[in-house]
Amino acid sequence: MKKISLFIMILLVGITVLACGAQTTTTAVTFDESKSINVYTRDTTSGTRTGFMEGIGFASAATSDSVLVQGFIIKDNTGILSTLAIDEYGIGYVSLSSVNDSVKGLNFNGVEPTEVNVINDTYGLKRPFMYMLRQDGDYPNDTVEAIVKAFVAFLSSSDGGDIINNSGAIALPSTQTWDQIKSSHTVCTQNNAAITVRFGGSDSIQKVAQALTAAFMPKCGNFIAEHDHTGSSDAYKRTNDPAIKDTAVGKDVGFSSRFFRDAELNVNSSLRGQLAWDAIVAIVHVNNPLNNVTAADLKAIYEGSYLTWAALLSK
Amino acid sequence: MPDTLNYYQKNNSKKGLIIDRIAKNIFLSMAILSSSFIIIIAGIILVRGIIPFTTDNLGIGRVSLLRFLTGNTWLIGQTFASNLYSIGFIIASTLFITILSLLISFPVGVLTALFIAKVAPPSLAKILRTVVETLASIPSIVFGLFGAGVILKIVYDFSALIGYQSKGGNSILSVVIVLALMTIPTITTISEVAIRSVDQSIERGSLALGASKTQTNFKVVLSSAKSGIFTAAILGIGRSLGEATAVSLVAGGRRSGFSFDLLDTTSTLTTIMLEGLKETTGIDYDIRFSVGLVLMVVILLTNLLLNAVKRRVGVVNVKE
Question: Which residue in the set B115, B156, B253 is minimally distant from A87, CB to CB?
Answer without folding.
Answer: B156
